[in-house]
Design brief:
The complex is a heterodimer of chains A (114) and B (109). Chain A contains no helices and 11 strands. With 114 residues, chain A is mainly β. Chain B is an all-beta fold and 109 residues long. Chain B contains no helices and 11 strands. In chain B, the strands form 2 sheets. In chain B, strands 2, 4, 5, 9, 10 and 11 form a 6-stranded mixed sheet that branches. A 5-stranded antiparallel sheet of chain B has the order 1-3-8-7-6, with no helix packed on it. In chain B, a hairpin with a 5-residue loop joins strand 9 and strand 10. The chains are: A mainly beta (114), B mainly beta (109).
């Protein structure tokens, strides 16, 4: 079983719908992240959390919100999905933080907004 | 602005050696990562450089020159399974991780 699990793996939805992507991890890491990946662009950070009750905006947080329900769970919500949010979304965890620690990624959630 | 530049695509032959370059302009530097990403899969960690020089790990090596804002990933004895995208990422002075768009490596028999 994967150490970082994302659900759903694929989702097609319509403009205006609310969508939640969930992430759970068994690595025991405190730090969790949500990224999106678009063709021809680098990974872009949406939100990150260094502990339960700690939420920080990344470079592209507009249109997204997150919830850190427990150390092992970090969910990403799109309150009202729009087509330019069509992308591959990755959850990641780390032990030592952004500066020295490697990231462990989930398998990705492919979201299509029509 | 901050950016990471790496070639979009490279082609190499099975059994050969390939070097993937990465240049960066960031506000400060606190380390450089290389990740491998097979199509449709998650990125996986390959290497981390924070000091100048070469880090070797089996068939893969990564080099860093901080004064030149330059790194490369060297893959030896290429195998078909090395066909993937290779992502360069730099941690800046604010400990933000800046990602390149990745280099798609195609291995031909």
């Amino acid at each position: 079983d994967a150490d970082v699990t994302q659900t759903p793996r694929n989702r097609i939805t319509k403009t205006g719908k609310r969508i939640m992507l969930e992430c759970s991890q068994t690595k025991g890491h405190d730090r969790m992240y949500w990224y999106r990946q678009d063709p021809g662009l680098g990974l872009r950070l949406i939100y990150y959390s260094f502990d339960v009750k700690d939420i920080n905006k990344g470079e592209i947080s507009d249109g997204y919100s997150v919830s850190r329900q427990a150390q092992a769970k970090f969910s990403l919500s799109l309150e009202s999905a729009i087509p330019n949010q069509t992308a591959l979304y990755f959850c990641a965890t780390s032990d030592a933080g952004l500066d020295t620690g490697e990231l462990f990624f989930g398998e990705g959630s492919r979201l299509t907004v029509l | 602005g901050q950016n990471i530049d790496q070639p979009t695509e490279m082609t190499a032959t099975e059994g050969a050696i390939v070097q993937i370059n990465c240049t960066y302009q960031t506000s400060g530097f606190n380390g450089l990562f290389w990740y491998q990403q097979h199509a449709g899969e998650a990125p996986t960690f390959l290497s981390y450089n924070v000091l100048d020089g070469l880090e070797e790990k089996g068939r893969f090596s990564s080099f860093l020159s901080r004064s030149k804002g330059y790194s490369y990933l060297l893959l030896k004895e290429l195998q078909m399974k090395d066909s993937a995208s290779y992502l360069c990422a730099v941690t800046n002075s604010n400990y933000q991780l800046i990602w390149g768009a990745g280099t798609k490596l195609i291995i031909k028999p």
